[in-house]
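Recall the central idea of this unit: under ordinary conditions, the amino acid sequence of a chain determines the structure it adopts. In this exercise we apply that idea directly, starting from the sequence alone.
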Amino acid sequence: MLGAAGLGQLLTGRSAIASQVKARSRRVLNIFLHGGVSQLETWDPKPNTDTGGPFRAIPTTVPGLHICELLPYTAQQMHRLSIVRSLDTRNGDHARGVAEMTTGRPRMPGVEYPHLGAVAARSLMPEDFPLPAHILIRSSPGGRNVESEFHSAAWLGPRYASMALYDANPPKFEDRPGEITDAADERRNGIRQRANERFLMRRRTAETEAYNFSFSQARELLANRHVFEVSRESAGDQERYGTSQFGRHCLLARRLLEHGVPYVQVNHADYDTHHENFDFHIEQLGEFDQPFAQLVADLADRGLLADTLICVMSEFGRTPKINKTYGRDHWGTAWSVLLGGAAIQPGAVIGKTNANGTEVTDRVVDHGHIFHTILRGAGVDSLGEFEVGGRLFPIADPARQAISELLS
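Accordingly, the structure predicted from this sequence is:
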């Protein structure tokens, strides 16, 4: 807990959150479908072909645009979203795919680039923003999983690294011992601040700055813990998002975006369907479809979609060829990503694949183009540079550019 004076100052910071949102700062929401979601069971269906599988293509709210029947709720939001159907990343490795899609750069040994969330946080975070600017929402940790990797801020520094929230729960807070009064807590913090100031007069490093920022952010989190409490949402909202873990994660994402968090990533896993691809996609997309569509609708209804760039991506797609166990394997040659909101043209389709989805026939793009497009759509000059420690670093891969026809 905090002293009265400190709490008052931090609640003033809380009021600043609302004013910053009203100032129309932009945000990024990344829904990452880990494992490699099938483009054929989502954004680029090929019914009645040798690769199409058992599902139909259904119409959407965009005339002439069809997506897979496993996404009926999302189909009703497609006038707010757009599809890129022409990714060719030439990769079938999970770890490499996650790294390349979230950094926009080729993965190379010994070289680390900032995650999209770190770049968005550095570019979009208002000055003195009291909350973490790069938040990852995922299931409980346990064992090695590529979905938990590659959220490094690299040379941007720890200030822009991700904070993970598990199972839609708020961060774990340790309250101040009851025997320490508010006044004593304030005196103790004052002593710490004065000691820090004297130390920094003699020695100021990136490490000391990171420590001071972390301590300050911890105090801000205590004052703003309510932001992370999904239970504060109305019973109606909680019912509309459903009882699944992904539904709760989407509701928490909405709450964070409403409070101005520049980058929120929601992970949804288990799309690595080498076996029983169709049954698994029925189950996984059954969890994904309604909460995601509800989130898009809510952002639009609350006036946030115009300033929130949405992307739904994976590390790669899945093979058009159906294997002997009714699965689809890893496929980086012709697959899809969903984008929408902010400066993305709504209702657009970029690129196309051939009749059975085995190759791109128009407007080939890769992870670098998508990275540039996300940043440009969120109002970031992706061709610019960051200055770090007196050195200049390109914000995105200089060899790529945004998909210009997708930007409004």
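The first strand starts at residue 27 and ends at 33.
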